[in-house]
Amino acid sequence: MGLNGLTLAVPRGALLAPTLDLLDTLGVDTAEVRSNDRKLLFAEAGIVTMRPSDVPTYVEAGAADLGITGKDVLAEQGDRAVYELVDLGYGRCVMVLATEAGDDPAAEALRRLGVMRIATKYPRIAMRHFERTGRQAEIVEVKGSVELAPLTGLVEGIVDLTATGTTLRENGLVIREEISASTARLIANPVAHKLRAAEIDELLARVRDAA
Amino acid sequence: MIHPIPSGTRDVLPDEMRELRAITEAVRGVFEARGYGEIATPALEYEQTLMRGDAGGATPAYKLFDERGSVLVLRSDMTIPIARVVGTRYASVAPPLRFSYFAHAYRSVGPQRGQSREMLQAGIELVGAAGPEGTVEALNVLCASLDAVGLESYRVGLGDASLYPALLDGFHVPAGARPQILHELVTRDFVGLGRELEGLALGEEVGSLLLRIPQLRGGPEVLELPEGPARDATAGMRTLHASLEAGVAERVIFDLGLSRPLGYYTGAVFEVYDAALGAPLGGGGRYDDLVGRFGRELPAVGWALGVERLHSALVGENRRGERWG
Fold this sequence. Notes:
A: 2 domains; B: alpha+beta; BirA Bifunctional Protein, domain 2
């Protein structure tokens, strides 16, 4: 039981609680992870914790055999050599294009200036969306609260992930387009996927039963 | 004064070079003993030549113009240059032809990913020997080389590039849907593969079979599939398994979903794994159409190992047990 001796990269943040709940049903002892939010490595349980966007890095390099992260992260880091094994179903959120309420300033910028400026933490997803829909956009990458960017005049719109839309609403932004939906995924290192096939498949069967 | 070199490239100093040399000399000994003559080809080739070998697959990352305006590229592997040599310089020599090489190949890298632009490859090409005998010989030389290097826990993943296309044929999957399905497979996205198959209304049984088969990997028992297109598609792998030598067979992991990034493979494909490294040490496979594109219709098989990766795996195997897990 447990993780069959495999190392699992667990995302901190919004995905942490449902991930630990899933691990509990798999028979992994998560008490230490729950009670200690500064510690990063839990050797006994086979768990390492990190930002969701770091999960593909650790799994691709084989520093963790398996990992759990959002489809949004995988789509943004599309060229990672990892196996995407299961859609875990939780952590549902949507990648959206949002602008200030009222007349759409991004549409106006596109019409009058020929290009719209878009702030995002997901430059590749945003770029792909505008290329696919044939619109010219200047992507501005920011690391922190994206909602600030249109309010200060830095950009006309943002591409960001939202679960409930509350933060957008509170900042006077409205959703103009839904780009893609995202849920948590279980991923595997390609070498571990071959060398630890039996352990991974047994764990997968339990994950599918639990999901 | 510090003068930088491009990211993904490196200087090799004597301490490291001594260890790399030990690896290449061990491998060279195996190549010599098995009759694989060493050849060298230019790092620069005409773009036209490489595109003839693999239109779209191994797109060369570095291009430049010569004095006359011709487009030159740095080779992205050695297989296509050797196919060119066979067509040009061995046009009438009786097969089989056995070649080996130690040469740098050039690839593009992602930013801050620790990837190499320039990597030293050690490999062989066996031209004019069809499967399964030719494949068996190539795998024998592969395992002998890895043994000579001193790796202990390596495994060889063995798949078939024609397996999944044959399955799609056998189950009458519409041609229009295939590129996307194969894309999900090559990008290792089984969630996406499941979604694509679900959208096709193939029936639950066929859909789940097409999703399950590429996830099968392990001992020869994974080749025992239900009668019908699935069993037919693995016929080549079962024949190959029956021909493998014992020392090779115990290293093999049969992998029905194995896909290689290069487009010219036609049959058996393989990858080398070691638990000490998170990425394959190398790989290869059959490319029965490639040499024909350069004028000689000869079946062929070959593989390449990354010498720097062999080195990392050796160091990693020695360190095993020191890791926290």
